[in-house]
Design a protein that fits this description.
The protein has about 325 residues and is an alpha+beta fold. It has 10 helices and 14 strands.
Length: about 325
């Protein structure tokens, strides 16, 4: 079982039942106003909630692991919530990330806007799940992309860096492999993601509340927050680009290839470099994915190689499947 299957299954049903695609197949006239799209709402309701996601994690892993109990509100990092609607500020490090879906507008040539909406919604929901599962915070949704943060006051920089790389690698895997395979089977033009990640240290990041009243968000003012989307724009298809500060946290690993030109010039003799992140190698080396006999990687989510099954995590599954072991 792939942890992203609940999203992929809904997307498959939407594509299979899209009336515009069927009309194109038979050369009919295309008038969306005549289509019955009542099935879309039913499919939208099939996207998993938190309870279903946690059950999926248990069934897939059988290992003790974090459970997602809540998804934080957008623009509301809990460690800096006290800044809301105040004029105060705080300097504190954070990892900023941007990931976006590219070429999704081509879907309008094939499907109704209701189906396109559901496809992009599914990808966004899957991405939000991956970010939260890996300890991140979604700052805002930008169309079919996300701005996110990793880190806070109760986590160290290296751990937050690993979390950010893991989340973005998982999202890239989902789009490049699971989604693309089905799309290609249905002759859909390639759709891909691009991601950018960068870390700003305490003296490089200022947290503020930006806006008026409820029309605002807790956000950061930082060169490195601004550089993350620039890195995203430098990424290749399904690629992830990271800044020097990220690479410094993962020293001694061969996941990064420096790009030819620096991403930033400080105009004082210093420059700031950015790197292509080999997320497929990262997934395999971290035990999050394995290679099959054909060399393709398969997501396994075995984050903790040395972990042993925890009986309390297996209990809710065993209780519904007799015979079961004695607790």
């Amino acid at each position: 079982m792939n942890i992203f299957n609940p999203y992929l299954d809904v997307i498959k049903k939407a594509i299979h039942n899209d009336p515009k695609s069927q009309q194109r197949m038979y050369g009919g006239q295309i008038d969306e106003s005549q289509f019955d799209l009542s099935h879309i709402q039913n499919l939208r309701n099939q996207f998993p909630g938190l309870e279903q996601l946690n059950e999926t994690i248990l069934l897939r892993k059988g290992f003790s692991d974090q459970e997602i109990t809540n998804v934080p509100r957008l623009g509301n990092h809990p460690d800096f919530q006290y800044l809301k609607e105040t004029g105060e500020s705080e300097d504190h490090w954070i990892i900023s990330g941007f990931i976006d879906l590219k070429e999704s507008t081509r879907l309008f040539n094939r499907f109704t806007k209701a189906t396109v909406s559901l496809i992009t919604e599914g990808i966004v929901k899957a991405s939000i799940f991956a970010v939260n599962y890996c300890g991140g915070y979604v700052q805002r949704i930008q169309g079919d992309g996300l701005m996110v943060y990793f880190g806070g006051k109760s986590i160290d920089k290296k751990t937050a860096t690993e979390d950010a790389l893991k989340a973005f690698a998982m999202i890239s895997y989902f789009v490049k492999n699971d989604l693309r395979e089905y799309f290609e089977e249905n002759s859909i033009t390639e759709i891909y993601t691009r991601g950018g990640l960068d870390l700003g240290h305490n003296n490089q990041v200022r947290w503020i509340y930006s806006g008026i009243g409820n029309t605002g968000e807790i956000t950061t003012c930082s060169l490195h927050t601004s550089l993350a989307p620039k890195m995203q724009a430098k990424a290749s298809s399904n690629g992830i680009v990271v800044g020097q500060n990220i690479v410094n946290q993962i020293q001694g690993e061969d996941y990064f290839i420096q790009k030819k030109n620096p991403i930033w010039d400080y105009e004082d003799g210093r420059v700031y470099n950015h790197f292509d992140f080999n997320w497929e190698r990262y997934l395999v080396k971290k035990g999050i994915a394995v290679q099959d006999r054909y060399g393709a990687i398969v997501l396994s989510l075995n984050f903790a190689k040395e972990s042993k099954p925890d009986l309390k995590d297996l209990k809710p599954i065993a209780a519904q499947n007799k015979p079961y072991f004695d607790f």
